[in-house]
């Protein structure tokens, strides 16, 4: 058993019940055999929940998990019921394939396990964060089309990228793919603005298809009449952009003030998108 006090750490639920320990063995710990969703919860309600469920469902089908949707939904509802008194909460819902005998091959009778952790956030998430200072990462994302877009439990590349940012005292690092094209920051998707249009890297070989990336493409940018598209984004396009920003579920949108020696002084498009983002979320 792996134990942790909930008095000094986040609240934890396993399969819908409050817990202080993870039963072992677990294939999520042993092999990264699972998926997760990081959700922003406002007064007990997860934002963009449909987007999270849809991405999780695709991931479960890709990994060949048994039908776990109803169980995961019930576990989330039980956890969120106790979070309603907090204005903002960071919640992570993890689904592993559960326990099994040793060996890589998944068991035919797998019983997936749902682990939820939640921690209150002090800052009002509707406030636009200060522009970030980032740089190019030395690490490059590996290519694996079968897993591209999924938020699976194998996050060592993200750990290494975040460590680069930490060592350099940066807010983030911008990671390229194996072809040398910009892909994403360690914990979010990037957008560049050029001549009134938004561009974000396609995620056919690597990267996570973020819920906020999708929200910007499908709802936020169209609401402002701003063309937005996916495709190959080059380093030169990034450096010549009018604005650069990244997004994730907890941070929302964050403009970039500096990428290495390249600097941006004003962020009118990101600020307009930020306002529309929260207007569209209706909170």
Structural features:
283 residues, alpha+beta, D-amino Acid Aminotransferase, Chain A, domain 1, D-amino Acid Aminotransferase, Chain A, domain 2, six-stranded antiparallel sheet, six-stranded mixed barrel, 28% helix, globular, Aminotrans_IV, 4-amino-4-deoxychorismate lyase activity
Question: Describe it for me?
Answer:
With 283 residues, this protein is of the alpha+beta class. The chain has 2 domains: 119 residues, D-amino Acid Aminotransferase, Chain A, domain 1 (2-Layer Sandwich), CATH 3.30.470; 150 residues, D-amino Acid Aminotransferase, subunit A, domain 2 (D-amino Acid Aminotransferase, Chain A, domain 2). Helices cover 28% and strands 31% of the residues. It is built from 7 helices and 17 strands. The strands form 3 sheets. The protein has a 6-stranded antiparallel beta sheet. The longest helix is centred in the N-terminal third of the chain and has 15 residues. The protein is globular, with a radius of gyration of 19 Å. The N terminus is likely disordered. Pathway: Cofactor biosynthesis; tetrahydrofolate biosynthesis; 4-aminobenzoate from chorismate: step 2/2. It catalyses: 4-amino-4-deoxychorismate = 4-aminobenzoate + pyruvate + H(+).
């Amino acid at each position: 058993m792996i134990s942790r006090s909930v008095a000094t750490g986040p609240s934890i639920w396993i399969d819908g019940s409050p817990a202080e320990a993870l039963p072992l063995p677990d294939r999520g710990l042993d092999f990264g055999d699972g998926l997760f969703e990081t959700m922003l919860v406002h007064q007990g309600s997860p934002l963009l929940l449909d987007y999270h469920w849809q991405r999780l469902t695709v991931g479960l089908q890709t990994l060949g998990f048994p039908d776990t949707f109803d169980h995961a939904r019930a576990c989330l509802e039980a956890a969120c019921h106790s979070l309603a008194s907090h204005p903002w909460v960071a919640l992570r819902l993890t689904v592993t394939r559960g326990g099994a005998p040793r060996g890589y091959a998944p068991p035919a009778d797998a019983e997936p396990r749902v682990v939820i952790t939640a921690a209150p956030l002090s800052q009002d998430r509707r406030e636009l964060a200060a522009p970030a200072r980032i740089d190019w990462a030395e690490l490059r994302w590996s290519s694996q089309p079968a897993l591209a877009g999924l938020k699976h439990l194998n996050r060592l590349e993200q750990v290494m990228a975040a460590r680069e940012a930490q060592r350099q005292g940066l807010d983030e690092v911008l990671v390229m793919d194996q072809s040398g094209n910009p892909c994403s920051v360690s914990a979010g998707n990037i957008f560049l603005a050029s001549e009134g249009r938004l561009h974000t890297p396609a995620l056919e070989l690597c990267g996570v298809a973020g819920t906020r990336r999708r929200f910007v493409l499908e709802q936020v940018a169209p609401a402002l009449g701003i063309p937005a598209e996916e495709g190959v984004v080059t380093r030169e396009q990034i450096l010549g952009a009018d604005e650069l920003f990244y997004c994730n579920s907890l941070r929302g949108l964050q403009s970039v003030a500096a990428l290495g020696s390249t600097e941006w002084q004003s962020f009118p498009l990101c600020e307009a998108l930020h306002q529309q983002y929260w207007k569209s979320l209706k909170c």
